[in-house]
Design a protein that fits this description.
Elements: H1 2-32, H2 37-45, H3 48-63, H4 79-89, H5 92-110, E1 116-120, H6 122-128, H7 131-142, H8 149-161, H9 175-192, E2 196-201, H10 208-221, H11 224-237, H12 241-265, H13 268-281, H14 294-333
Antiparallel strand pairs: 1-2
Length: about 325
């Protein structure tokens, strides 16, 4: 009977090790993987912030289908021109601030704090009505070929007839004449642009975030399972202080070493599998403009949970070693 109890205790010890490692991963994943701070560094390395002008350019092209909504200096612009304009208008620190705000909005949406994720366009509107907005237009014009006499004549006609402004680089003596026109038109442009752009919004039915919240709840509860196996192991095997130290210490050491190795090595195989799962599942939760960054998000998720798993594994191994040493010390004293 005693041997059978020890056999069951060994089974529960093995189950504890397996489930404890899984719980470390899942619990830390829930804590770390759903905050914007986790991804800001990863996105900076992936040049996400540098791509914001292109994202906003596509937004302007797709949301302003009626050119009459825009002033003449901005009518008929394609995505490449809008991209160049935004890069001239917005410095890198503003782009990063906008990107961070967008990420915060996305994760607020993920966490069901809001029903939509928004990208604020207010920094763009503010820049447009400032001197920087006018300078951005001239910077944009400077990238174009020099205006010919025919183009200058056409530009004059366009200004008088409220037509689409021909883009070319005007001579310096024409700049003072264009400045007040551009200033007025930029103010009109700022009024035509919405304050924010909706990146993603919750569907009226079958919201995928509800399933995500259920999964996250299970992640938070995951430590209960190894604790249950630990309790069962204790009931079947522990009958003294020495046996308690040994039966708890050895599983702690093994769990800690395996978790530490996983965190230290980056668990390449597990990481690749995990990333593939995330990339296939993420499109239901990501804005369309971020689908190209699903791989970066998944990579950041894997990396951010490995660091705490490493340290927690080391702590478990140290605790287990201390318990085994304590059991040995008791034996020596006896």
């Amino acid at each position: 009977m005693e041997a059978f109890k020890k056999f069951l205790a060994a089974i529960f010890a093995l189950l504890f090790i397996i489930t404890a490692i899984a719980a470390l991963i899942l619990f830390n994943f829930d804590r770390k993987a759903f905050t914007a701070e986790t991804y800001q560094k990863a996105f900076a390395n992936a040049n996400f912030y540098d791509q914001l002008p292109a994202i906003m350019a596509e937004t302007m092209v797709t949301t302003t289908t009626n050119n009459d909504q825009l002033p003449i200096v901005m009518r008929g612009l394609n995505a490449e021109v809008w991209d160049a304009f935004f890069r001239s208008l917005l410095p890198q620190d503003v782009l990063k601030s906008m990107g961070d705000e967008a990420l915060n909005s996305i994760f607020a949406y993920w966490n069901m704090e809001t029903n939509s994720a928004e990208l604020s366009l207010i920094p763009i509107k503010t820049g447009m009505v400032s001197d920087a907005g006018v300078q951005a237009v001239f910077t944009l014009l400077e990238t174009q070929p020099d205006c010919t006499l025919r183009q200058l004549g056409q530009m004059t006609v366009d200004l008088l007839s409220n037509g689409s402004l021909l883009f070319c680089n005007p001579p310096a003596d024409v700049t003072p004449l264009l400045t007040p026109v551009i200033q007025g038109q930029m103010q009109m442009t700022a009024l035509a642009i919405p304050d924010q752009f909706t990146l993603i919004s919750a569907p009226p039915e079958n919201d995928p975030r509800e399933r995500l919240q259920t999964v996250r709840t299970l992640m938070r509860l995951s430590p209960i399972l190894p604790l249950g196996f630990l309790l069962l192991m204790t009931l079947f095997a522990v009958n003294s202080l020495k046996s308690w130290l040994n039966w708890w210490g050895l599983p702690f050491i093994i769990t800690g070493i395996l978790a530490g190795l996983m965190g230290l090595s980056g668990a390449p195989v597990i990481g690749v599998i995990f990333q593939r799962i995330l990339v296939t599942r993420m499109p239901a939760f990501l804005p369309t403009i971020l689908l190209d960054y699903a791989g970066n998000l998944a990579s950041a998720m894997v990396q951010t949970l490995l660091n705490p798993v490493l340290f927690q594994g080391l702590i478990l191994a140290l605790i287990g070693s201390a318990m085994v040493a304590g059991a040995y010390f008791i034996k020596v004293n006896k």
